[in-house]
Amino acid sequence: MWADKLLNEADWAVRLYEKIAKKSHKDRLEFVKRAHAFKINPKMKAYPQQKIKVNSQQTIHMILAKRPLVSLTEVYAEVFFALVGQRVSTSALNYEQARLALKRAKQKDRPLLFVLHPHDGRGDWHWRNWRAMLAQGTSRDQKHKTKKLRDAQPNALLELTRQYEVVAMSIRDMREVRSRFKTPRYKAPDDRLPLFVVADSYAKQIEAVTGWQSRAALTRALAKGLLASAKSGELSVVELLRLHTLASTHDDSETR
User: By residue range, what is the domain housing residue 78?
Assistant: First the structure.
């Protein structure tokens, strides 16, 4: 019974993907939202505004109708609860994420970026804030009207972040990571959260920045971290200079 349901849902997801493959991102969101709403009730065309009685399978479609094309990492806890009625801990996943990132950093000689937020049960919300922070400055978020002007404004923070192994978790989980993997204790410049820690490939702190509004400061810190790790040879001198210039240009634009 459950196997048949799983296969049916998998088949539905594949067919849905085939239908949206060539659509724009905006059209994909709308199409997927309507598709999930239809699975809740064939008469529905959007997320229900009032409470309705649904089974566990329909609850999952309600979650995905409200947040179409959301990353699995953001909703798996809600989906698990809808299926079995039990809360799932994200700590074990965070520890494994940290273990793998620390391993890759040493193997590839890449710097680390820790994004540490409060342990307040709002991990998804903090994750969305981090993604939104990275998205600022991309072409679709620019106010310029022409494509030429949009393309002339590179996203320094996003490009620099791509050179890092990134670990996002709560402060409490980070304490356990420090205990398990013997990482250093990090120092914050103030009490604000989240705390962004830029570290070398051995997790030794290079710089720290706090707060969601610290985009320019974080960009500078990431550039500093890459330059501090330049001896690794992972990036060419030309690429390091390009990223440093990108960060400097971003910093100048922020102060105008």
Answer: 2-84
